[in-house]
Amino acid sequence: MGMVGGSLEAFIGGVHRIAAAIDGQIELAAGAFSSNPEKSKSTGRTLYLPDSRVYGSYEEMIHAEKALPADQRIDFVSIVTPNHLHYGPARLALENGFHVICDKPMTISLKQAEELEELVARTGLVFALTHNYTGYPMVKQAKAMISAGAIGKLRKIIVEYPQGWLAGRLEDTSKQAAWRTDPAQSGAGGGLGDIGTHAENLTEYITGSQIAELCADLTIFVEGRPLDDDGNILVRFANGAKGILHYSQIANGEENSLTIRVYGETGGLEWKQMEPNSLIHKTNGTYRVLRTNWGELYPAATAHARIPAGHPEGFLEAFANIYRNFAYAVRAHQEGKPRDPLYDFPTVQDGVRGLRFINAALASAETETKWTRL
Amino acid sequence: MGMVGGSLEAFIGGVHRIAAAIDGQIELAAGAFSSNPEKSKSTGRTLYLPDSRVYGSYEEMIHAEKALPADQRIDFVSIVTPNHLHYGPARLALENGFHVICDKPMTISLKQAEELEELVARTGLVFALTHNYTGYPMVKQAKAMISAGAIGKLRKIIVEYPQGWLAGRLEDTSKQAAWRTDPAQSGAGGGLGDIGTHAENLTEYITGSQIAELCADLTIFVEGRPLDDDGNILVRFANGAKGILHYSQIANGEENSLTIRVYGETGGLEWKQMEPNSLIHKTNGTYRVLRTNWGELYPAATAHARIPAGHPEGFLEAFANIYRNFAYAVRAHQEGKPRDPLYDFPTVQDGVRGLRFINAALASAETETKWTRL
Amino acid sequence: MGMVGGSLEAFIGGVHRIAAAIDGQIELAAGAFSSNPEKSKSTGRTLYLPDSRVYGSYEEMIHAEKALPADQRIDFVSIVTPNHLHYGPARLALENGFHVICDKPMTISLKQAEELEELVARTGLVFALTHNYTGYPMVKQAKAMISAGAIGKLRKIIVEYPQGWLAGRLEDTSKQAAWRTDPAQSGAGGGLGDIGTHAENLTEYITGSQIAELCADLTIFVEGRPLDDDGNILVRFANGAKGILHYSQIANGEENSLTIRVYGETGGLEWKQMEPNSLIHKTNGTYRVLRTNWGELYPAATAHARIPAGHPEGFLEAFANIYRNFAYAVRAHQEGKPRDPLYDFPTVQDGVRGLRFINAALASAETETKWTRL
Amino acid sequence: MGMVGGSLEAFIGGVHRIAAAIDGQIELAAGAFSSNPEKSKSTGRTLYLPDSRVYGSYEEMIHAEKALPADQRIDFVSIVTPNHLHYGPARLALENGFHVICDKPMTISLKQAEELEELVARTGLVFALTHNYTGYPMVKQAKAMISAGAIGKLRKIIVEYPQGWLAGRLEDTSKQAAWRTDPAQSGAGGGLGDIGTHAENLTEYITGSQIAELCADLTIFVEGRPLDDDGNILVRFANGAKGILHYSQIANGEENSLTIRVYGETGGLEWKQMEPNSLIHKTNGTYRVLRTNWGELYPAATAHARIPAGHPEGFLEAFANIYRNFAYAVRAHQEGKPRDPLYDFPTVQDGVRGLRFINAALASAETETKWTRL
What we know:
homotetramer; alpha/beta; Rossmann fold; Dihydrodipicolinate Reductase, domain 2; five-stranded parallel β-sheet; about 35% helix
């Protein structure tokens, strides 16, 4: 693995490295950790990389690695930069035969996203997008249950992603906050792109339903911030279900409370990211809690849990599932075998959906017409 | 107290009787429990009332009671009939000098509601509307905290009221379901009037903010049902806060999960009706749980709790608080004293707000324009 | 009903009055609320009783009421005094033909308890002991499930009752604390009698198993207090199950956290008084939550719930179930009919068990021998 | 790192490998994964180790690695075998200059434990015992708070570790169950050694108090099992606190519910392993929840968390903290620097305490005298 971005002070780079390391399937072998060559080198040294594999730019890394013998060079590129720096390295990596795993949202424009989609289709390479919440075992269980009809035809879906960390003007002091609230780096969506797309992706993944139209009320609550930090969105799904998607970065006091509830004709499911090892399944008259690695679960759930029930698995393990499944797909590609659908992960198509969602929500927020199609 | 409606098979009549009895301040002295005189009599007997005070109609009760000596007749009328039968007895009671406590929504039309408002203003009598959820101690605490600025200027408000009991065609077999899904008895709102108004009232009570405009997506999910059984509504408040109000009677597996979250500039509050003795107060970095009768609370909270912390108080005690406070106001009226604002309760104005909300949501659901003003 | 004790400043008197009032089956008709006649009168007036039925002592009340015509006098006596004042009125009431409902622990000596047991047997009158926690619907459900074999042969039982309110020397300022920590009023057990007996009674009720022997470590943590404020007790049951009973009044920060867990060969049950509408039923591989009035429950559970699922019922409703069931038994006695076992309540035998438990725990705490038989 | 034990079918070997890998500080470089050389080799290959570093026995590994140049050989040995196979490799490793990290309980006899203690003292090498639950951030927070007097002088401590997985005769089919219930492999304690020692260690770590005496009721509930599968133990601490330690492997339906509650004169703390990112701090009148990486925490807590609040960290991250801190200590040893006390971990002394606890509990279970000193 060669990493683009992820110098020591960044949050998400460390998460990707842990996620890649957990299962012993992936080795960090190279990196262009920063556009500042010195910073890139020092990050590399801290990570026990030889200087020779630490590069000053992603272009340098991709070209240099390609020049190495096939059994020595990296197999894939991991892109963990701010949003506006996804497209360039992703494109260059794909064009040079490297598989790609990339943070989300995939790009800062739908056009870029569609170009990557086309490029992946053309090259046949493996592309993963780290909508990491889909990696949780009980998310897999929820998806499998809905797919098997456990709660009947879907009617109502409520997904929410409240955070509070941007309740004040943190962008003046926090690098994490600064790029997320800067349109040049983040794209036209603020919270919408950063966490709204997670909510959208999780919903479409679990339910197998696509948002067909929406009605968005997006707000900038913190004065002087150029991008939305809160959004309330009515959603209608292609299959007739209806619902709500709301997110916030100014929900003061909320940590990272991504939650989804899905109600069908015969029952309902509820999953909370902050208590990820429980999946609540209710019907009128029953209430049961399904637990990671406890009792009968679908293979998709058990294939993504590592330790016995009651030993809580968390965010990093779910993230690691994306990496591990991506690694399996890369290996299958190398061996000319088909991917095992049990070990799925978000793909370039999810990235395109995310950009469509961002665009539709932004358009809806600007219009006085109720419904905007995705 | 003379009750209108509430024969034995009705659910809410029994709740009102318990709520009235708990504090030993109110005596059930008369009743017109059913339009069927036999049923009314048998209900009265079961309740240990003398036949002479059990009537075949509310008109009969009001006129007969008025004819009794002042120290023997009822002081007020409690109306627990389906929605379409609120206006008639409320009007007649007020016109004949009886105070009124009435179930919600107040009427089936805004015009009726405004007439009652005018009548209450003219007569000076006490009118309470049993939006009972405002009777919980921790709801009082939340209101007091917000009023005192504990979470700063309000930004986001999420209120929801999911139930699942009408996920199937229960109206064919359940009298409770039948009248609630019948426009002639329930009014033009189905779930909207039955529980949406509770959510609206609770929100405006706790936050002291009024909904200024809304955008509603109302649905009838169960085939053949004439009234909405689900609603997703974007709301904007007069003071600049924004939010979501959603309710459902088809959220399969949900019991009665009324929940409100309010986020201000400096913190957030969360209250769940199904765990009513906890009020969660968070800020970025802190998380505390305020508990009924535990530690320092506002007088409004302690004045509505009866027993030491850890002895759970529930729905009936909250409902009883409405009755007790109404009784206090009636007594104050009788004694020519002012009402003590500590012992508040929903009034005829709340009833008018409820009808405005119903009308606006129904209008919004029919239009392609995004925002409808209340 | 004629009440002994329960003047306005007492906590438990008000609870008994509410519990008696809720279901409209019992009327407070007389009272000897205080040994101070003035205080008794003023309490009576606040409760809307005529002065003629408010007495200066329980002896006066019992004799005066007995002298009334049968259709005018009270049917039963409710005793809500401190522990040392249970025996006297209970005995006198029974000897004069009045049924008795009495707070717990029943007496301050086993000898007194056994005398009451004998007297109840001899008179055939109805005697209820307000071990109120057995009145919760989900406690009834747990008992019914265990009795039906839902978790198999019992192995391990853990019951605990932690409170924190006596962590400091509250007895100097609180009347509630003062009598509970005074051996002359409370008996030889402090926390042991006050809450330890609740834990013991709840356990024996739910499991149908009797404690056969125990090993107690009782402590007085607050300096100068003459009675135990904390206890840790190993227990062994007659049927081979083993377990732990612990209680505390110095568990700083705990409200009233009575909790029981029972494990059998094929599953486990857990019930918490502070979340009383849930009963957790687990097996290795399953986890379900049974909820008051939700889905299929045993008749014993549904017979003790009043309102639909999701409308929380609490402490007062559970307490009221004891009163209502007692009233049913009194009526059955008056009508010469057998009691309906569905409407059960703790009896004089439970009172005797409680005293045996207190005696055994106190003896165990004094000896260096491991096990003390009950 | 060279691993002893941990072939692919073992549970705990994989946990150790993940824990070692997460922070990128430790490389698995060698292993004697099984006493079956073929199984050892195949495990090594799956883990991408060269055959040359995969050994058929720990003796072979230690001698062969010692013969390698210092910059190529392993720095330490990780021992993940069943209990009876800890002492041999630990001793040989220490005698040959390798640091040791070892699973718990440390040995199967107190004598062995004391020998290792002496050997560690003599060699000055680093020895860590994987009482992994002490690695959780909120456990560190609890320890720091108690040490700083946040809840005052300790009075009552309740620790419990219920599991249900051995409710049936799993040892006939599960290798994990088989060795744990075999005295030859597990030592004289069954559940006592496997999980009772975790409870003991966690308690002494958090509270800084040592168990001085105990009174144990240990049971074998599953017929034919030679070792205890349940234990109820009264404990008294050297500093005057009292409490309860109970554990079970037959608590049917329990996953891995290690929980500790500590009450002091001025407050109480509660931590549950299955919800590890919350630490509840209550006093009489307040209730707050401290959360991993949220708000003001002690440095010991923040130093053991990796990601922002709301991204749940779990069992593997806590386990990894033990490995990382051990690695820091090894590096400090190599560099001749003192250990940083912030990065602590359980040591050989904890191992000796564990064996003393096991011995005392077993002795207590056999005697009719109430208290047995540790």
